[in-house]
Specification:
5-stranded parallel beta sheet, mainly alpha, 72% helix, elongated, single chain, Rossmann fold, 3 domains
Length: 550
């Protein structure tokens, strides 16, 4: 964030003339724009750091502090604005100074948090750039980046159309520029409410979708959609019937100014209800782990439809005609968004129906409480042995399936459980998420053990040690063969394979020892220990079946 903010600030300083031109600054507003621009650029590093670190503070479990750090800067900005503008007579420079002072104060309070955070610990090592982490961040953030940058493009194109055609109209260029700026700010406030409501439902939708609770997903989305539609209806009524009251908040101007402002509010924001619904659909799809579809909807409204419509209508009917571009974009993107949502829900329903219609394989001559637990070294092929064994015995197989069940029961995300379930991060005397995962998985293991199954890892041999028909198996392998499997099946390099084998086995051993008070590689904990290399995958499965038969 710091590196990016400095680069952005330096580029903006270097190319400020070109940037002002891109955004359609007129001769009449040039001096004000340049005065504001030069000062506001100094606040870029503070603004970016505050925005980015604020999300980390929320993730660290301190949303109230994150809100406080943001609000203190905003409130200070509001207080300093009239003082700098009127008392010190700094005009537009004063507005810029008030803004960056607020940003600096917010940044200071944000950084103070990291002196004593709840869980997050910063060090020199953690501040080094990691290529893989940077790549992952860039991949995950590209959708939001494109959505945000499209707004910048829209503003730039709109301003240039206003400058080009405004000078040919009775309104001139400065009135439409000012009015459109105000309208877009008001529009942003409404959209902020919609996005806030939608993002508030994101964790609920994502969690229940992952847990297969589709009814709750639909119920939550319906509530979000209803709320945002009501917001859109209220906004529509205000913009159509009471726009003058909003215009007056931003100052008293000429009759010509008011004439264009009224048109702008009533035409440009006529499709606000559609926008609210479309934004809800876009964020809903993002919550369902479908960022590509979400991005298509956002780009469709702001880039694909709006900009061409703006250019065409402006050329036909100047600064008045261009106002209809927003309504056209809103209607078309609304239709497309609902079409995507309809198709998506239909496919989702088909998937659920197929899953529900799967018939469990019959089990013959196998005890009703037979459970085979398999502990295995990383790269030994133990998971595949277990899966093949379950298939041949026609009984259920549990490995990654336990992650989904644990997420559903514990409230933790599947990604968090996957990353932490078989390691012990925090050896605290207090109850924490690691303990929550183990306890929840143990409860699920006891429940699923009531019918024949194969369970991979997760201390299942210890959890079910008092059950009658439980057979505890340990599978291991030579290092060279583990490396070969990791490079062949996991796509790792030799060095990566060695590193992963050592790390994963060490984590599994520590996790097992912590919760069972036993040594993971102590063969006396198991009924059968096999070197998979000696018999191969198929031979190992056959050997286990022979033992079970006897």
């Amino acid at each position: 964030m710091l590196i990016v903010s400095i680069i952005v600030a330096l580029l903006a300083f270097t190319f400020q003339e070109q940037i002002l031109k891109i955004f359609g600054v007129t001769q009449g507003s040039y001096t004000y724009a340049k005065d504001y621009f030069q000062i506001i650029l100094m606040g870029i590093p503070f603004y970016i750091l505050t925005s980015g670190l604020n999300g980390i503070i929320r993730a660290d479990g301190s949303p109230k502090y994150a809100m406080f750090a943001t609000l203190i800067g905003a409130i200070l900005n509001i207080i300093l604005d009239p003082i700098a503008i009127f008392v010190f007579d700094l005009e537009v420079k004063g507005a810029a100074i008030a803004t960056i002072v607020g940003q600096i104060i917010s940044c200071i309070f944000t950084l103070i948090y990291f002196v004593k955070p709840k869980k997050l610990k910063l060090s020199k090592v953690t501040l080094r750039l990691d290529r893989n982490i940077c790549k992952k961040i860039s991949t995950l953030g590209i959708s939001s980046f494109i959505t945000q940058i499209s707004i910048v493009i829209v503003i730039a194109v709109a301003n240039n159309m206003i400058v080009k055609y405004g000078t040919l109209s009775k309104f001139g260029a400065d009135i439409p520029l000012s009015v459109v700026g105000i309208v877009m700010k008001v529009f942003a406030i409404v959209i902020a409410l919609v996005i806030g409501t939608s993002i508030g439902g994101q964790p609920i939708i994502g969690y229940n979708y992952g847990a297969g609770n589709i009814e709750r997903v639909k119920k939550t989305f319906k509530l979000i959609l209803t709320t945002n539609t009501i917001i859109g209806i209220i906004a529509f009524i205000i913009f159509q019937f009471f726009p003058q009251y909003i215009i007056n908040i931003f100052g008293s101007e000429s009759a010509l100014y008011n004439e264009y402002a009224l048109m702008c509010f009533r035409i440009y924001l006529a499709g606000i209800i559609f926008t609210c619904i479309t934004k809800s659909c876009s964020i809903y799809l993002q919550s369902m782990g479908k960022p590509f579809k979400s991005m298509i909807i956002s780009l469709l409204r702001d880039i694909i439809i709006f900009i061409p419509s703006l250019i065409i209508l402006a050329s036909m009917n100047g600064v008045v005609g261009m106002l209809w571009a927003a309504l056209i974009a809103d209607v078309i993107s609304f239709i497309v968004a609902f079409s995507i949502l309809f198709i998506d829900n239909k496919m989702q329903h088909k998937e659920i129906t197929v899953n529900d219609n799967k018939v469990a394989l019959e089990v013959n001559d196998i005890p009703k409480d037979l459970v085979i637990t398999i502990s295995r070294e990383y790269g030994s092929g133990g998971r595949y042995v277990g899966k093949l064994l379950a298939k041949e015995l026609k009984i259920k197989f549990y490995d990654k399936e336990l992650i989904k069940l644990t997420a559903e029961k514990s409230g933790l995300s599947e990604s968090y459980i996957k990353a932490n379930e078989q390691i012990k991060n925090n050896y605290s005397i207090f109850y924490n998420n690691d303990d929550n995962i183990f306890i929840t998985e143990s409860e699920i293991i006891k429940k699923i053990s009531k019918e024949p199954c194969v369970i991979i890892g997760r201390c299942a041999d210890y959890v079910l040690e008092n059950n009658k028909n439980v057979y505890k198996i340990y599978l291991y392998s030579d290092l060279d063969n583990k490396i070969k499997r990791c490079t062949k099946y996991y796509g790792l390099s030799k060095d990566e394979a060695i590193k992963n084998i050592k790390k994963v086995d060490k984590d599994r051993a520590k996790h097992y020892e912590y919760y069972t008070n036993r040594k993971w590689k102590d063969f006396t904990n198991y009924d059968l220990a096999i070197n998979v290399d000696k018999l191969g995958i198929g031979g190992t499965v056959k050997a286990i079946k022979n033992v079970l038969n006897k």
